[in-house]
Amino acid sequence: MKWLTGFLACLVSMTLLWAHGNPRGVAEVSIEGKKITIEYGRPQLNGRDLLSAVDNGFVWRMGADAATTLTLETELISQGVVIPDGSYSLFARKKSERQWELLINSATGVHGTQYDEAKNVAVVPLEFEETDSPVELFTIELEPAGDGVRFQMAWGSARLSTKLQIRS
């Protein structure tokens, strides 16, 4: 029986390692003393170009493993929708070859494949741009932009971005 307990413990440890086999990344910006943070998994291309290969309507977890998490210490506004301070999961939906949307979702602490459209707080159009050379490691960046913050993610041959306003 002792061997079975050891075997099960090893199996659980191996499963956890496989489930979180990609490095994690953090993008953070501070505006007027308030932080905006995104924590996400950073998959590698490994010769693939997944974003161009998926069908229209596909919802992506924007990273790997656990859902990408947005934490706000201030309110944001996008498309007239107020996004209160707090924590959210981020997803992206492919609308067409060069059109994507950022989905800000109230479900948190979920695996990246657990998307519930009914919990969307905001749906934000993303600007599409082709990169000069493929981005191997998925990357999210945040930077101050006038009265808001510029969100940008890049992977493969695609760069997707938008500006979110700080609510004053």
Task: Tell me what you see in this structure.
- The longest helix is centred in the N-terminal third of the chain and has 18 residues, at 2-19.
- The protein has one domain.
- It has helices at residues 2-19, 50-53, and strands at residues 24-31, 34-41, 59-60, 68-72, 76-78, 81-83, 86-96, 99-105, 120-145, 148-166.
- By secondary structure, the chain is mainly β.
What keyword list fits this structure?
disordered N terminus; 10 strands; 168 residues; globular; mainly beta; 55% strand
- Uncertain parts: 1-19
Secondary-structure element pattern, one letter each: HEEHEEEEEEEE
How many β strands by DSSP? Answer: 10
Strand percentage:
over 45%
Structural class: mainly beta
Overall structural domain count: 1
Shape type = globular
- Rg, rounded, reads 17 Å
Sheet having the most strands: 10 strands, antiparallel
Average pLDDT confidence is 86
Determine the N-to-C terminus distance.
Answer: 63 Å
What is the helix tally? 2
What percentage of residues falls in helices of 4 or more residues?
A: 10-25%
Quick take:
The protein is mainly β and 168 residues long. It has helices at residues 2-19, 50-53, and strands at residues 24-31, 34-41, 59-60, 68-72, 76-78, 81-83, 86-96, 99-105, 120-145, 148-166. It has one domain.
Strand-helix topology:
Elements: H1 2-19, E1 24-31, E2 34-41, H2 50-53, E3 59-60, E4 68-72, E5 76-78, E6 81-83, E7 86-96, E8 99-105, E9 120-145, E10 148-166
Antiparallel strand pairs: 1-2, 2-4, 3-7, 4-7, 5-6, 5-10, 7-8, 8-9, 9-10
